[in-house]
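Reopening this one. Same input as before:
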Amino acid sequence: MGSCRTVFLALAFTAGSVSSAYAYRPFDSTDPAVADLGDFEIEMSPLSYRHEPSGGLLIAPQLRLNYGFAEDWEVVLEGQGEHPQFAGASSALVENALSLKSVLREGSLQDKEGPSIAIEIGMLLPGVKAENGVGASLAGIIGQEFSWGAIHFNAAWELSRDHRGEVFLGTILEGPSSWTVRPVAELVYQREFGLSEEVAALVGVIWQAKDHLAFDFAVRQASVNSAPETEIRAGVTFAFSLR
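Same output, byte for byte:
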C-alpha cells in the first residue's frame, strides 16, 4: 500500500512536464481527442454526491486514466467507488471499463480545419459487490471548436453486463477555450432496453488553472424511469508525460 502512495505522489509531482490537459470531466460524454503520444491524463473526483429516491450516495473516488500509447490512440481505464448512505446497502466498486479510443479525423480539436471525429471501443468489466458479468461498448464521437466555444456529439451502443442492449446519446456544449473559467453543459438520453430509461441535463464550469491542470464543478439533474435523481460533481484533471 505504501508503494502505491509513493507511485501516485511521484506521478502528481511530474504533472508540470506536459503541455496541456483537457478536462472531460464532469461529463458522461466525451470529446473526439486523445492523450498525446507518451502522455498520461488523469481525471479524478475525490468526492461527489448523488441523491436517488432511495437516499443519498457518496461517490469516492471516481477515476479515469488515459494513456496515449500511439499517435491518435489512447487506452482508458476507469471505475468508481459508490457508498450508499442508507440502511441495507453496502459500498461497491462499479462502472469499471477498459477501452481504446482513436481519432479517425483530425480537425479543430487537433488545431486543424473542420470537425474532429473519433471512435471508442470498450469492454465493461465486472464490479466488486455489484455489476457482475462482462459487457461491450462502441461509440462514435464528433466535435468542433469555434470562436464561441465547442460542441461534441456522442452516439453509443452497449451490450450491458447482464446482456441487455443499451443506447446512449450525449451532447456537450462548452464556452470559449480562451476563458480561464468556462461554462459547460450536457444533455444525455440513455436507454437500457427492458429495464431503464434516463434523460439528464448537466450545467457546470471548468477552471483551467494551468495548461496541464483543470478543476471542474457541475450539477446533474436526471429523470430515471420518471424518478428524479440529482448529482453534484467536483473533480480535477491533470497530465504528465512519460517521454
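So the earlier flakiness isn't reproducible anymore. For the record, The longest helix spans residues 2-13.
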